[in-house]
């Protein structure tokens, strides 16, 4: 007869196993949640550290709390610049698989920091490129609140844009912040609307110019290298020329964006430097490309490897120039606040203490490492498919567009140029694919139907609308945020 009373110890162990499984699931859930909090926790630790450094250096001087708060906000701004803006330099190289995401993050962090610390400049216009005259503000206290409001508003907007997956201009964000606080503090007459008009024009000029130049170089590569019978012979002739153009363009770009912080340099001098470096780059790479191409198969896939190293170098140089140029967006207002608190007066230009520059440089790198991968993947993979040749065209376009814009005296955004270059490459690919399909259809007597053409679209329109909307909204959004923050600070104090 079966035992009707099972051993109670067996049930006890079963109950214990179930309880342990439940505890294990809770622990797994806790680890999963904690993993998502690591990056924000480290970012918060960096912000607190920046505040502590400011506290130690101020040493109980009058206005210490204001400088501590400003240092924390400046660190927060730098983190957001790293999270959002740096993706434009690294996205194409990662999307084309010329480098891994980890390698890109390391390269960008190193060269962004070097650019900021070596060529970041020791003098910065404190009020975002002359948008508002400092003397238009009532007194130094209102100037400090205006700078803090602008800095915090720009950082909050960048944080939101990164969360939404929209690459936006950090320069336009800080300009919007200054305008918003300046209007509330001193009225509409305090704003230089001519400069604002030029900035608004750059919303269209930057991406269009970047897109056209990137498409132009892709057209050259396709016609002179890819769609020819002997691809290897064509590559041996044209790739060194293209690398020479890239070397010259980046030498000029770095002279304009980086070296100008170290010593005065004119556009003609920068172009002369670029010509010398470009010719040297062409002569050096001629035998290198010949050796590298020996034994290669005569097909398109073989050509991609010839562009990988130049693309990695270009990404590093773009990061260096970005660090030299855009670190001012984080540390310019912070340096202005420190100077005003310490000296008690408002200056059009101020020196930047090393600790302030370090907060900006390290903040950009930390923000990139913690939060950069999201936008790097979007820029590199989700707008259009990139390979090393297409990504090379985008990087080259970024350098040349800045040079042309400097010659024309136009303010442009590196973010808008890079993203515009990616769209330009994508739309050119669509046009070229449509043209070839039409020619093939005519030869075979079978034209491609409209629905098939629509299916072959190579650029994601949804991303284009999202990015364009974010660009248009950036200045008004950061201005509105800054105006509200200024009113709050003014009311509290």
From TrEMBL:
A GO cellular-component term linked to this record: membrane
* Localization (cell): Membrane
One matching Pfam family: PHO4
Q: Which GO terms describe its biological process?
A: phosphate ion transmembrane transport
Q: Where are the transmembrane segments?
A: 32-59, 65-87, 99-119, 143-166, 173-191, 197-218, 238-256, 262-284, 305-324, 352-371, 391-408, 464-489
GO MF, one term, reads: phosphate transmembrane transporter activity
- Which keywords does UniProt give here? Membrane, Phosphate transport, Transmembrane, Transmembrane helix, Transport
User: Please, which domain of life does this record's source organism belong to?
Assistant: Bacteria
Q: Where is the signal peptide?
A: none
Name this protein carries in UniProt: Phosphate transporter
Q: Which family is it part of?
A: Belongs to the inorganic phosphate transporter (PiT) (TC 2.A.20) family.
Regarding the membrane, this protein is recorded as: Multi-pass membrane protein
The record's principal subcellular location, in a coarse class, is membrane
